[in-house]
């Protein structure tokens, strides 16, 4: 295993060339115009995995969605099996004018890879392919390995649920290994033990049957943008508490003891504010910043539009206003139930002067990883081997809805070994991935296989 560092050094230029080829494919799953790029990206992964040493690899269709890349390497039937999950789709790049580099032309600068997908999740998934390649080339792979790369994670993995249901036997494994999360800091390894759930909607508020002259009709006819803003403002009270009736009924309340353990994780509030260029934080009263993003639900407007936004002035009352809204959910909250509660509440507080429509876009339940299972212990030991210190268990504010789906459909737990950092700007302009994290991931993953195989023997 000591050979891994020299293997990385000897092959790093090839790694960059291969990863940058993957990044150049603009696989934006939320945009129909990029549908051909999804197939192209899947085929690129097919080639990568075959060259890495899998026994077989297929680009498999889903029922109406983007293809899944499946591959496997069998060492022996009696050996444990690890299923590596990742996604090849990426977020849109807007607003493009805020990028300092070309989003799909990866560039190495200041010790980082700058590009859309550099971290989330092309860079992190690619680490697994190269760690696997090393173990195959050096004849050190101690267990069976399967790969599943999907193209819809950023839009809710809608078609992967059915794919898993249809291919349970093929996807059978002892653990699912995922790198799509972050660490506390470059020198503070951590393992993500919890992901928040998600419920996401698009709201449309309609007033008059056409745009109106704001002088002739202003003050007499409802303005959908004004109304939408008022409706949104009523969703959170002065204490940061979400006002949807029964929203908190099923929230799992974390004990004071567990909260005290969470508080031991290093967190510098002043540094946090400085990095974000904000004067203060906000959120639910009675909880710390890390608790607000780890163990409590949240409500956010992700986008809002309507009316005239072009150059100069146009005095109109718009006919329509729109918003994309999401909630992050915690253990015991059901995203379908929350979706119905949100829709019912929004419509109940809307005035008769407008019509309100709510479209559910996607969602998923939260996931909590048991810290006493062999895979967690193996990941813990792997981090300790390469970083020289024990990783801290953390709960992420983010969501990977399909992880809970794996638990329900495949009856298989997932271990979340993420190497990203909070400063990587995933989902934002200028996404990046530090080279140190990229290489450290390739170095650490083989140790997970080694220790997991030993613990399962």
Describe the protein.
By secondary structure, the chain is α+β, with helices and mostly antiparallel strands. It has 13 helices and 18 strands. It has helices spanning 4-23, 35-52, 122-137, 160-166, 214-217, 224-233, 256-262, 269-276, 289-294, 335-349, 374-387, 401-409, 435-456; strands at residues 56-60, 68-73, 81-87, 107-109, 112-114, 144-150, 175-178, 190-195, 197-206, 212-213, 298-306, 316-317, 320-329, 355-364, 367-368, 392-396, 414-416, 432-434. The strands form 5 sheets. It has a 6-stranded mixed sheet with strand order 1-2-6-3-7-17, with helices on both faces. Strands 11-13-9-14 form a 4-stranded antiparallel sheet. Strand 1 and strand 2 (68-73) form a beta hairpin. Helix 1 packs across helix 3 (122-137) and helix 4 packs parallel to helix 12. The protein is globular and about 80 Å long. The mean pLDDT is 96.
Overall spatial form: globular
**CA distance, first residue to last residue:** 19 Å
Estimate what percentage of residues fall within beta strands. Answer: 15-25%
Q: Order of strands in the sheet with the most strands?
A: 1-2-6-3-7-17
Largest sheet geometry? 6 strands, mixed
User: How much is the average pLDDT?
Assistant: 96
The proportion of residues forming helix, as a percent range, comes to: 25-40%
Total helix count?
13
Q: Over the alpha carbons, how many angstroms does the gyration radius reach?
A: 23 Å
Q: By helix and strand content, what is the structural category?
A: alpha+beta
- Low-pLDDT ranges: none
- What is the count of β-strands? 18
């Amino acid at each position: 295993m000591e050979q891994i560092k020299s293997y990385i050094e000897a092959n790093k230029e090839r790694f960059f060339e291969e990863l940058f080829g993957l990044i150049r494919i603009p696989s934006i799953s939320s945009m129909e115009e990029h549908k051909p790029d999804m197939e192209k990206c899947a085929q690129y992964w097919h080639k990568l995995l075959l060259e890495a040493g899998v026994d077989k690899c297929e680009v498999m269709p889903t029922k109406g969605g983007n293809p899944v890349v499946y591959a496997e390497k069998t060492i022996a039937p009696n050996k444990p099996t690890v299923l590596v999950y990742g996604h090849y789709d990426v977020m849109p790049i807007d607003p493009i004018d805020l990028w300092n580099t070309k989003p799909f032309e990866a560039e190495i600068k200041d010790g980082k890879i700058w590009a859309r997908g550099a971290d989330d999740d092309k860079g992190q998934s690619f680490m697994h392919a190269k760690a696997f390649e090393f173990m195959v080339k050096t004849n050190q792979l101690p267990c069976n390995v399967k790969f599943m790369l999907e193209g819809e994670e950023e839009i809710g993995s809608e078609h992967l649920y059915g794919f898993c249901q249809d291919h349970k036997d093929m996807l059978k494994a002892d653990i699912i290994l995922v790198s799509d999360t972050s660490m506390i800091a470059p020198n503070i390894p951590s393992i993500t033990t919890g992901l928040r759930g998600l419920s996401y909607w698009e709201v449309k508020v309609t007033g008059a049957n056409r745009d109106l002259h704001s002088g002739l009709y202003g003050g007499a006819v409802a303005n959908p943008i004004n109304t939408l803003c008022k409706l949104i403002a009523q969703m959170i009270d002065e204490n940061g508490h979400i006002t949807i009736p029964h929203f908190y009924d099923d929230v799992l309340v974390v004990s004071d003891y567990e909260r005290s353990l969470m508080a031991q994780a290093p967190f510098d509030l002043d540094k946090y504010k400085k990095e974000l260029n904000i004067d203060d934080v906000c959120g639910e009263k009675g909880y710390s910043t890390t608790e607000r993003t780890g163990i409590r639900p949240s409500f956010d407007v992700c986008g809002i539009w309507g009316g005239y936004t072009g150059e100069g002035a146009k005095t109109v009352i718009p006919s329509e206003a729109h918003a994309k809204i999401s909630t992050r959910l915690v253990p015991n909250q059901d995203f379908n139930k929350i979706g119905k509660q949100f829709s019912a509440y929004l419509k109940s507080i809307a005035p008769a002067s407008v019509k309100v429509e709510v479209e559910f876009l996607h969602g998923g339940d939260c996931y909590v990883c048991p810290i006493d299972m062999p895979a967690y212990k193996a990941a813990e030991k792997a981090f300790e081997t390469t970083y020289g210190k024990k990783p801290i268990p953390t709960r992420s504010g983010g969501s990977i809805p399909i992880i809970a789906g794996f638990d329900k459909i495949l009856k298989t737990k997932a271990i979340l070994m993420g190497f990203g950092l909070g400063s990587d700007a995933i989902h934002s302009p200028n996404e990046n991935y530090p080279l140190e994290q990229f290489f450290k991931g390739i170095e650490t993953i083989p140790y997970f296989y080694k220790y997991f195989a030993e613990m399962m023997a």
